[in-house]
Amino acid sequence: MCVSPEDQKKTDHLLALDGARERLQLFKASLLEEGSFEHAIGGCDAVFHTASPVKIIATDPQAELIEPAVKGTINVLATCTKVSSVKRVILTSSMATLLSPNFPLGPNVLLDETTFSDPSVCEEEKQWYILSKTLAENAAWTFAKDNNLDLVVMNPGLVIGPVLQPTINFSVDVVIDFTKGKNTFNRKHHRLVDVRDVALAHIKALETPSAKGRYIIDAPIVTTEEIEKILREFFPDLCIAHENEDIDLNSMTYKVNVEKVKSLGIEFTPTETSLNDTVLSLKEKHLV
Questions:
Q1: Which residues form a coiled coil (predicted)?
Q2: pTM of the predicted model, to two decimals?
């Protein structure tokens, strides 16, 4: 589903997928338009809700991030409760919903599916993206409980991997920055996960009857030096600078329990493969 299915720039890459002409249908819908998903969801056995704006800086957080995330999620879930054929909903949330700015992160800290960000702290710290995803997931759980809806939530880290679309999204832009010697988050440690692993986890969550609750999807932590070394090795033609010495050495050092998602049969793609495939696809599309 998309706002403008007639816009070829937004749909041609989807229609070019194997079997798409026979099996893919595109419907006009909007996250903020109540009831706009009814035609698309009608007759479906399951629904994947994966859409929510990603921005770190917003001039109007309520309009740009919070309302589309929260209202959009509830609009989709509300439609699902009206369609008797829908048996399960898979919601793409984010690891951001585990990373409240007030958490004392450190090498001995272990995060798992029971961890939730504090919305009030996110608002105080102006962490608008974290706030939007946290409020949306909280609203989804409340709605699912009140309406007896079978909901499973996926919480991935920063998603990289080969791109389908001809445009640059936020997570891909992070990789592009690395190829230019920039570190978007000014961190020493990064939590990257391959889009193919994330997609498979969503499918497994649908196909596994016992799947329930939240699932963190997060590959092993990688340092800035390791990312730069991998990129220089695979792509010596790119201008990849060495790490900025001013990076916060203590940022984002924590452990994540991913045993639950591994129980679905997920084995994480090596970071080297993910980074290589990401940049190769960007080169093919002349984006780097």
A1: none
A2: 0.91
Q: Which domain, by its residues, includes 170? A: 161-193+220-288
| Short-list 238, 227, 157, 240, CA closest to 188 | 227
Q: Is the residue at 2 inside a domain? A: no
d(CA 286, CA 5): 24
Residue 15 backbone phi and psi in degrees, to 5: -70, -15
Domain count, the chain: 1
Range scoring the smallest mean pLDDT among 175-179, 180-184, 278-282:
180-184
Task: Please give the share of the chain, as a percent, with pLDDT higher than 70.
Answer: 91
Q: Which amino acid is at 128?
A: W
- As to burial, measured by CB atoms within 10 angstroms (0-12 exposed, 13-18 middle, 19+ buried), residue 19 is exposed
In whole angstroms, how far apart are CA 28 and each of 4, 25, 44, 81, 250?
Answer: 6, 10, 16, 20, 45
Is 101 within the bounds of a domain? no
- pLDDT tens track for 78-106: 999 999 999 999 999 999 999 877 777 77
Q: What is the CATH number of the domain that holds 238?
A: 3.90.25
